[in-house]
Specification:
Number of helices: 7
Helix content: over 70%
Strand content: under 5%
Number of domains: 1
Shape: elongated
Mean pLDDT: 87
Number of strands: 0
Low-confidence stretches: none
Largest sheet: none
């Protein structure tokens, strides 16, 4: 990856993390409409080597600190460990998907969204006012608590945000590769 491509990739990852924060004001009616898992996934998919650990994860961590401050919860707590385990899972999936076709990548994005949804809603079931039964867990992963939007809406918004961000990432990445290949092809044709 050339320097311009690397800079663009890093900028897009930071934009995704920044969007998580500004979404609170821009789209408050769409809870969880953010590319949280896609940031980790696309970082591993496109950044060279282990750079994802120095770019995407710190960007996610800073945006988590800002969001925790906004919601008035502790900036860092033990509940973040399973969430960062989900980010680690998305990074692993990103590495696995390098060189795969679009169907594999879309499937991986959806698996990441499902894993994140199940982990975070299981955490909510264990820490909020849900009955500690299988029915309480089912409530946590479907309708949620009374007075709040159903939790399936959080999943829908999160999965859509991840798919949209990943699509943006893939589209711009491949468009830039195509644009770089066009002058090279023109030079080859001119030399014939």
């Amino acid at each position: 990856m050339k320097n311009a491509g690397l800079i663009f990739t890093i900028a897009l990852l930071f934009f995704g993390a920044f969007y998580r924060v500004i979404r609170l004001e821009l789209l408050p009616e769409l809870p969880n409409f953010s590319p949280v898992m896609a940031i980790a996934f696309c970082g591993a998919l496109f950044l060279p080597g282990r750079l994802v650990f120095f770019v995407a994860l710190p960007a996610l961590f800073v945006s988590d600190l800002i969001l925790n401050w906004h919601y008035g919860v502790p900036l860092v707590d033990a509940g973040m460990i399973p969430i960062y385990a989900c980010y680690g899972f998305a990074i692993w999936m990103g590495y696995l998907m390098r060189g795969r076709n679009l169907a594999w990548i879309v499937s991986a994005v959806l698996v990441n969204a499902i894993v994140f949804y199940l982990v975070t809603n299981t955490l909510a079931w264990g820490s909020l006012n849900y009955p500690r039964t299988i029915y309480g867990w089912l409530q946590a992963v479907t309708v949620g608590l009374p007075g709040y939007p159903p939790t399936w809406m959080f999943f829908r918004n999160s999965a859509f945000g991840d798919l949209l961000f990943t699509g943006l990432f893939l589209g711009t990445f491949y468009a830039s590769k195509k644009r770089k290949a066009a002058p090279k092809r023109a030079r080859q044709e001119a030399s014939v």
